[in-house]
């Protein structure tokens, strides 16, 4: 039957997101919380996160181009970004945010810039992985409805 | 709250993941029965957090109102809107969370106030507590911290 291999693929994909440290248990809480209300709500929330956090990323990019760096402003922006990222369980992104804030507190410009580049990589990687995951989940959803006994 | 992923037994792991959930999934949202309909105000400028905090509260039957800036929060409280619980983020548009807390307390509000924010230093934590916040929670807001507060408000 076609359904099971796809479900197994989805499950495997999901497991690796946790095993490889991209997501933490907050993502699981999200899934449980939003299951009944709307099966696509987790995807909608993640989409919302990427839409809103893009503005913060842009503001951080701009702030990092200024000389001298305003560490207080950078810290404030990253504080917001970290809060948002932690709310969807973006574990690696959150870790880079924490590191960035430590560099802000110690006034380490190079550390901030280096960490921010790594953060953007993790942010982009997670986005791609989640897009693939949700795309497959959506394919399985309608298939399950079609195969449901009448 | 310690949560572990399914055990190392591969076949049972696969079944658990296949079922569209996890064995531990049912343990993540602590189940409680509320006797009363509580109300909460969520003040957070970040839309993702604002949406999720309200959804978490809704899952426990709490009626919520959300505002995304400090000015609206203060105006709401000043207009005699009453809540059992106010959740405030530290960094907000217009006024910061500390100033909002101060103004809300000056108005005379005596409900439970939670500061929910990405981690801050001890001095900031103490400042919020001194201004009238009851509990300081690091984001994300989770059932482990929320449920005891809801139980207390519900008189359980």
Structural description of this entry:
The complex is a heterodimer of chains A (150) and B (156). With 150 residues, chain A is mainly alpha-helical. Helix content of chain A is 82%, strand content 0%. Chain A has one domain (3-146): Up-down Bundle (Four Helix Bundle (Hemerythrin (Met), subunit A)), CATH 1.20.120.160. In chain A, 35% of the residues are buried. Chain B has 156 residues and is of the alpha/beta class. Chain B is 43% helix and 15% strand. Chain B has helices at 10-18, 25-28, 47-59, 70-78, 97-107, 122-131, 143-153, and strands at residues 39-43, 63-67, 85-88, 112-117, 135-138. Chain B has a five-stranded parallel sheet with strand order 2-1-3-4-5, sandwiched between helices. The A-B interface holds A 4, 7-8, 11-12, 14-15, 18-19, 25-26, 28-34, 37, 45, 48-49, 52-53, 76, 79-80, 82-84, 86-89, 97-98 and B 3, 5, 13-14, 17-18, 20-22, 24-26, 28-29, 45-49, 51-52, 55-56, 59, 89-91, 117-120, 139-140, 142-143. Chain A: This is Histidine-containing phosphotransfer protein. Chain A: Keywords: Coiled coil, Cytokinin signaling pathway, Phosphoprotein, Two-component regulatory system. Chain A: Its main location: cytoplasm. Chain A: Functions as a two-component phosphorelay mediators between cytokinin sensor histidine kinases and response regulators (B-type ARRs). Plays an important role in propagating cytokinin signal transduction.
CATH class of the largest domain in chain B: Alpha Beta
Kindly report how far apart the N and C termini of chain B lie. 21 Å
Number of strands of chain A: 0
- Rg calc of chain A: 18 Å
Poorly predicted runs of chain A are none
Q: Uncertain segments of chain B of ≥5 residues (pLDDT<50)?
A: 1-26
| Structure classification of chain B | alpha/beta
Helix run count of chain A: 6
- Helix and strand run of chain B: HHEHEHEHEHEH
In CATH, the architecture of chain A is Up-down Bundle
CATH topology of the largest domain in chain B: Rossmann fold
Q: Look at the structure and give the mean pLDDT of chain A.
A: 90
The CATH H-level superfamily of the largest domain in chain B is Response regulator
Show the largest interface. Answer: A-B, 36 and 35 residues
Question: Rough shape of chain A?
Answer: elongated
Coiled coil (chain A): 109-136
Subcellular location (chain A): Cytoplasm, Cytosol; Nucleus
Keywords (chain A): Coiled coil, Cytokinin signaling pathway, Phosphoprotein, Two-component regulatory system
Function (chain A): Functions as a two-component phosphorelay mediators between cytokinin sensor histidine kinases and response regulators (B-type ARRs). Plays an important role in propagating cytokinin signal transduction.
């Amino acid at each position: 039957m076609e359904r099971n291999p796809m479900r197994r693929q989805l499950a495997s994909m999901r497991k690796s997101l946790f095993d490889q440290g991209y997501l933490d248990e907050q993502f699981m809480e999200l899934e449980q919380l939003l299951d009944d209300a709307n099966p696509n709500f987790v995807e909608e929330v993640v989409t919302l996160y990427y839409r809103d956090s893009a503005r913060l990323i842009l503001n951080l990019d701009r702030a990092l181009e200024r000389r001298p760096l305003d560490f207080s402003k950078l810290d404030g922006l990253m504080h917001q970004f970290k809060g948002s990222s932690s709310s969807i369980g973006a574990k690696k992104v959150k870790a880079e945010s924490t590191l960035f804030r430590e560099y802000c507190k110690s006034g380490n410009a190079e550390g901030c810039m280096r960490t921010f580049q790594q953060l953007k990589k993790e942010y982009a990687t997670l986005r791609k992985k989640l897009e693939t995951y949700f795309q497959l989940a959506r394919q399985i959803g309608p298939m399950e409805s079609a195969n449901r006994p009448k | 709250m310690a949560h572990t992923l399914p055990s190392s037994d591969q076949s049972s792991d696969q079944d658990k993941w296949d079922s569209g959930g996890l064995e531990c999934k049912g343990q993540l949202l602590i189940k409680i029965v509320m006797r009363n309909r509580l109300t909460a105000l969520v003040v957070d400028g970040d839309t993702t957090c604002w949406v999720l905090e309200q959804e978490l509260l809704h899952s426990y039957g709490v009626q919520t109102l959300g505002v995304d800036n400090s000015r609206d929060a203060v105006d709401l409280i000043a207009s005699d809107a009453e809540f059992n619980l106010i959740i405030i983020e530290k960094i907000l548009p217009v006024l910061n969370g500390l100033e909002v807390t101060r103004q809300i307390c000056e108005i005379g509000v005596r409900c439970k106030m939670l500061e929910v924010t990405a981690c801050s230093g001890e001095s900031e934590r103490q400042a919020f507590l001194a201004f009238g916040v009851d509990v300081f929670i690091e984001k994300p807001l989770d059932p482990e911290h929320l449920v005891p507060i809801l139980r207390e408000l519900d008189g359980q």
